[in-house]
Amino acid sequence: xxxxxxxKQASIDIALEQSGSQQANxxxxxxxxxxxxxxxxxxxxFRYALAVASKAxxxxxxxxxxxxxxxxxxxxxxxxxxxxxxxTILPKGAAGVLNGEVEFSTASDLDDAWATLTLAVxxxxxxxxxxxxxxxxxxxxxxxxxxxxxxDALTETAGLAFSDxxxxxxxxIATDAAVFAFDTDGTLTNWTINTVKNGTPQAVDTGVAVEAxxxxxxxxxxxxxxDADFYINGNLVATVTDAVTATNLLGPWNSVVTxxxxxxxxxxxxxxxxxxxRI
Length: 279
Description:
Blueprint: H1 4-8, E1 11-15, E2 28-32, E3 39-42, H2 43-53, E4 57-62, E5 76-78, E6 86-90, E7 101-105, E8 114-118, E9 129-138, E10 144-151, E11 162-164, E12 171-172, E13 176-183, E14 190-197, E15 200-209, E16 216-223, E17 228-232, E18 235-240, E19 251-258, E20 266-277
Antiparallel strand pairs: 1-2, 2-3, 4-20, 5-8, 6-7, 7-20, 8-19, 9-16, 9-20, 10-13, 10-19, 11-12, 13-14, 14-15, 16-17, 17-18
């Protein structure tokens, strides 16, 4: 029996089954390890061995297909103060939708009403890296606040990871987080980077104007030391040293807040991708 250690030093030849055979859909790997006779393993065995014996990546790509409006599982939606969240899954083929898309919004009759959409906090940059990407648009840029990125909690006070998003006054609620933010309470006009490392916040103005009904592709890449690069539509807009605590767990964080009691704040997310080395 070939052991995990043998996989590390194996010489590998790939043997594919003949077309039309019973096993044509499963490639077989022939491994001749130094201390073992030749063994034949299918793809699942080989993939497991590589994951155990060497670094491998784990990722989630969320395109909202097959998720119901009622539960949104495995995502967590949070509201408070009697606010109702409107979360709607748009199917493939809907106007402007590449595949699936989720829309979520606040109520329109309560100042500072919020709605958040989050996923499991289970991703740690210190294992190698952490990458997050999302394609997002907001419905308006008057009397509202938005956060898209990564945080260390599924819920936060008042639905925000930061209570002040400005460069001069950035104030954290989360212990560790890295987000693209916009907030009319801070008279912002551009997307702003907000990060916090164990209670020490930082903020950077990206110089990219926020526009309603316009898709943005946001990306955050955090290295094993907790330093982060931020991209908008493929362009590097900020690099933040000591952005987050690299050993703390993070997860996707999306938040919308209305700053007036007559208009709902709403965001649409086309897709979310998160990837890191295995923990």
